[in-house]
Design brief:
Elements: H1 7-18, H2 24-37, E1 49-57, E2 63-69, E3 86-88, H3 89-94, H4 103-112, H5 126-131, E4 136-140, H6 143-149, H7 154-162, E5 166-169, H8 176-188, E6 194-197, E7 201-206, H9 209-229, H10 250-265, E8 274-278, H11 281-287, H12 292-296, H13 306-309, E9 314-315, H14 323-349, E10 365-368, E11 372-377, H15 380-403, H16 411-418, H17 421-424, E12 439-443, H18 448-459, E13 463-468, H19 471-478, E14 485-489, H20 495-509, E15 514-517, H21 532-560, E16 564-569, H22 582-602, E17 607-614, H23 624-634, H24 638-642, H25 653-665, E18 673-676
Parallel strand pairs: 5-6, 9-10, 12-13, 12-15, 13-14, 15-16, 16-17, 17-18
Antiparallel strand pairs: 1-2, 1-4, 2-3, 4-7, 6-7, 8-11, 10-11
C-alpha cells in the first residue's frame, strides 16, 4: 500500500480551512482522515475513526485541552472539520479511574463534555483515543491486517510480522473496557507505532498527522507483504461450477429471490427488500468454492460488520436451468436461515437482564454460486452497503485462508455487538417514508410529467428508474435523484427493448413494484382527413406501447410473487374528446379499456391497476404551439384555455405527479380512473 500524502495538498487544505476559522491541527486531521476513508481496503461506510488532541478557546477566551474525534454519522471518506467534534480532554481522562462504566453512561459523559452541544455524538471509541496520549491517532479495519488478526494463533503471528512495532490487544467489545485494555497495552511497550486489536482492526499513532497516517500505511503494507508471501489459495470447485454457461441471468434470479425474501418475512416484518449483486473476483472466488457453506458459518471479518450483514450470508444453490427446483430450494434455505437466526437469538438474549428486542431474521447477504454476493437492504443505499461489506468479508476471508485459517470472534461476541444496547436504542427512532422499499419505473420519464413523477416518488423514499427513448435525457432526469435514480434508454414501441429495460432495473435493484406507464404522443387533425400512418403512430405509442409495458410488468411481478401496482396516464380525452384531436382521443380511449382489462384479469394476483386523466398539462405533448392551436379550436385565448376548469386554475405536471403517488398508495383500489383536470363536468365518469 502506497502513501497518498501530498505536502502541496496538505498545505492547500490548511489554507482552505483557515479561511473558515479552522486551525491547522484539525485541518490536517481532516486531510489525512479522508486519505484513509477513501480506500475501501481500510475503511467502509462509517467504519474506523480518527482523532487529534488540540487546544481551543472557551467562551471566556481560556485555552482548553480537547480531543477532536470522529463523530457519529460521519464517513471518513467525506469528513469535514465538524465531523471531529471537540470534547474536553480532562474529564475523559478522569474516567479511566473508574472500575466500570456502562455504554450509556459513557455516551452521556462524552456528550456532557462537548465544546459544542449541537455536535454529533463522539465515536464509541472516544475513550481509547483519549487514554492513549499520542497526539494523532488513526483506526482502520484494514482487510490485510484482519487476515492476520483473524487467525487461531494471531498474537504469535503478529509478533513475528511486526516485532516490537505494535502490541496486541485481545478482543474486547468497543467502549470503556477496550479503551482501558488498549491504554494498558500502550503503556507496557514505550515507542509503539500502533496496536493490533485481535479480530477487530489496527490503530496507529504519531506526533503529526503525516506520521500517524504513514505508520498506518506501513503497518498495513507489512500485512499485505506477509499475505503475498504465502502461496495463492487453491480453489475447490463446486460440481455445478464446472458448467459456467448454465447459470441463469441476474434479471431472472433476483426477482425470484426478492419475492422469496418477502414471503419469508411473513406478517411480522416488511416484505419488500432491495438487492445489490456483486460479481467481483473475490465474491466469485468465495461463492463458487466448495468450502462456501463452511466459510459462511465462520462469522464476520470484524464485529462492526455484523450490524450491516448479520453474522453470515445465506447460501443458496446455483441457479441453473431448472428455476422451479431452484426456487423450492431457496424457499427451504431461507426458512432454515430464519429458524437458525431465531435460535441464535434465543440462545444469547437470555444473558441480558431485561432481554433484547429481536431483529428481523432475514439475511443481509445472500451467496449465489455462479452469480455472486447479493446485498439486501431496505433501500438501494443500504443494500449497497451490505454488498460492499460482503465483498470486504470475501477478500479478508480469502487472504486469511491463504495465511492459515479464517477464525473470527465467536457467536457470543458477535451477538453482543449486533444487539449492543447503543444499537438497540436506535430501534423505532426512525420512520420509513411511505414508499420506502419500493422500486418504481416511469416511462416517458424525461418529459415534464415523467420527471415530476420520478421526483415525487423519490421524495416518498422509492427507488426510481426513468425510462425514455432519449437515453441521455433519461440519465439527466435521474441525476437529481442521486442514488435513488436510474436512467435507462428505452423505446417503448419496441417490446424487446421494453423487456430489456425491465431486466436492467431488475438486475440493478432486484425487481419492480410500481410501474407508471406515462409515455405518449399527441397528434392533431380531423379524423376524416387523418392519414392512416398518423393514427397508427398514435396507437403504437398510446396503446400498444402501454401493452408492452404492462406485459413486462406482469411477467416480472409473477416471478416476484409480491403483487404490483400498474398506473397509466390515460388523459381526459378518453372520456371527453376534443375537436381535431381524434388520433389522441381514440388511442387514449383504447388505453382506458386496456387499463380496465388488466385490473379485471390480475386483481387475484395482488396487482392493482389504475389510471389518471390529466388535462391541459404543459409538457412535451402540450407545447406552446399546441396550446395556441387548441385555444383557437375552442375560440378562447391560451390563458383561458389552460385554466378552463371548475377551479379556474391551471393544472401542472406536479399535480399529476402527486396524483400518481396518491394512486400508488391506494391499497384497496383497482380499476379506477382519477381526473387531474381542475374539474371538467364533461369528462366526469358516469
Amino acid at each position: 500500500m502506497k502513501s497518498l500524502w501530498n505536502d502541496t495538498d496538505a498545505r492547500g487544505t490548511v489554507e482552505r480551512y483557515a479561511a473558515q476559522g479552522v486551525g491547522e491541527d484539525l485541518a490536517l486531521r481532516t486531510y489525512s482522515a479522508r486519505l484513509l476513508g477513501g480506500d475501501p481496503a481500510l475503511v467502509l461506510h462509517g467504519g474506523g475513526n480518527t482523532s487529534v488532541k488540540s487546544t481551543v478557546l472557551d467562551l471566556f477566551g481560556d485555552p482548553v485541552d480537547v480531543l477532536c474525534v470522529k463523530g457519529s454519522g460521519w464517513d471518513l471518506a467525506t469528513i469535514e472539520p465538524p465531523g471531529h467534534p471537540a470534547v474536553r480532554l480532562a474529564p475523559l481522562l478522569r474516567l479511566r479511574t473508574l472500575d466500570h462504566l456502562s455504554d450509556e453512561a459513557m455516551v452521556n459523559a462524552q456528550r456532557q463534555n462537548l465544546m459544542d452541544s449541537t455536535a454529533p455524538n463522539p465515536s464509541v471509541e472516544t475513550l481509547l483515543h483519549a487514554f492513549i496520549p499520542e497526539r494523532f491517532i488513526d483506526h482502520t479495519h484494514s482487510l490485510a491486517v484482519l487476515a492476520l488478526a483473524n487467525q487461531p494463533d494471531a498474537a504469535g503471528l503478529i509478533a513475528a510480522v511486526y516485532g516490537d512495532r505494535v502490541a496486541c490487544v485481545p478482543y474486547v467489545m468497543p467502549g470503556f473496557d477496550l479503551a482501558k485494555c488498549a491504554a494498558d497495552a500502550w503503556e507496557s511497550r514505550p515507542g509503539l507505532e500502533g496496536l493490533i486489536l485481535l479480530n477487530h482492526g489496527v490503530f496507529s499513532f504519531g506526533a503529526t498527522a503525516r506520521e500517524s497516517y504513514e505508520r498506518m500505511i506501513a503497518l498495513v503494507s507489512l500485512a499485505e507483504e506477509h499475505v503475498a508471501l504465502r502461496p495463492p489459495l487453491s480453489a475447490i470447485a463446486r460440481p455445478a461450477s464446472l458448467q459456467p454457461g448454465s447459470v441463469q441471468p441476474a434479471c431472472d434470479v433476483l426477482p425470484v429471490l426478492r419475492g422469496i425474501l418477502g414471503h419469508a418475512a411473513g406478517a411480522a416484518w416488511p416484505a419488500r427488500w432491495l438487492l445489490d449483486l456483486r460479481s467481483s473476483p473475490a465474491a466469485m472466488a468465495v461463492v463458487d468454492d466448495a468450502r462456501l457453506p463452511d466459510w459462511a458459518s465462520r462469522g464476520v471479518a470484524t464485529p462492526d460488520h455484523v450490524i450491516r450483514t448479520k453474522a453470515g450470508p445465506l447460501v443458496l444453490d446455483r441457479p441453473d436451468t431448472d428455476m422451479t427446483a431452484w426456487r423450492a430450494g431457496a424457499v427451504t434455505a431461507i426458512e432454515a436461515y430464519a429458524s437458525a437466526y431465531a435460535a441464535y437469538f434465543e440462545r444469547n438474549a437470555g444473558r441480558f437482564a431485561g432481554g433484547k428486542t429481536a431483529l428481523d431474521p432475514l439475511p443481509r447477504v445472500v451467496a449465489v454460486p455462479g452469480l455472486g454476493l447479493v446485498g439486501v437492504g431496505k433501500s438501494a443505499a443500504e443494500a449497497a452497503v451490505a454488498a460492499d461489506v460482503a465483498e470486504a468479508w470475501a477478500a479478508a476471508l480469502l487472504a486469511a485462508e491463504r495465511v492459515g485459517r479464517f477464525t473470527p470472534v465467536g457467536e457470543a461476541d458477535t451477538f453482543d455487538l449486533e444487539y449492543w444496547s447503543l444499537e438497540q436504542a436506535k430501534l423505532g427512532k426512525t420512520t420509513e417514508k411511505r414508499l420506502e422499499r419500493r422500486i418504481v419505473i416511469v416511462t416517458g420519464g424525461a418529459g415534464a410529467i415523467g420527471a415530476a413523477t420520478a421526483k415525487a416518488f423519490a421524495a416518498e423514499g422509492a427507488q426510481v428508474a426513468i425510462l425514455d427513448v432519449d437515453g441521455p435525457a433519461a440519465m439527466a432526469a435521474a441525476s437529481p435523484l442521486g442514488g435513488k435514480g436510474l436512467g435507462v434508454a428505452c423505446d417503448v414501441t419496441d417490446p424487446l427493448d421494453v423487456r430489456r429495460a425491465f431486466e436492467t432495473v431488475a438486475s440493478r435493484w432486484g425487481g419492480v413494484d410500481i410501474v407508471v406507464s406515462n409515455a405518449g404522443v399527441a397528434h392533431a387533425g380531423a379524423m376524416a382527413s387523418l392519414p392512416d400512418r398518423v393514427l397508427r403512430d398514435a396507437f403504437d405509442i398510446n396503446f400498444f406501447a402501454h401493452q408492452s409495458v404492462a406485459q413486462a410488468a406482469v411477467r416480472l411481478w409473477r416471478e416476484q410473487g409480491l403483487g404490483g401496482t400498474l398506473l397509466f396516464n390515460v388523459s381526459k380525452q378518453a372520456l371527453n374528446p376534443g375537436p381535431d384531436f381524434g388520433a389522441y382521443g381514440t388511442s387514449k380511449a383504447a388505453l382506458l379499456a386496456l387499463m380496465r382489462q388488466y385490473a379485471l384479469e390480475h386483481g387475484a394476483e395482488g396487482i392493482r391497476v389504475n389510471g389518471l386523466n390529466p388535462d391541459r398539462i404543459r409538457s412535451g405533448l402540450l407545447s406552446d404551439q399546441m396550446i395556441a392551436a387548441r385555444s383557437a379550436a375552442r375560440g378562447v385565448d391560451p390563458a383561458t384555455y389552460m385554466a378552463g376548469n371548475l377551479l379556474g386554475e391551471e393544472v401542472t405536471a406536479q399535480d399529476v405527479a402527486e396524483a400518481f403517488v396518491f394512486a400508488a398508495l391506494m391499497r384497496r383500489t383497482t380499476g379506477a380512473i382519477i381526473p387531474v383536470d381542475g374539474g371538467n363536468v364533461a369528462a366526469m365518469v358516469r
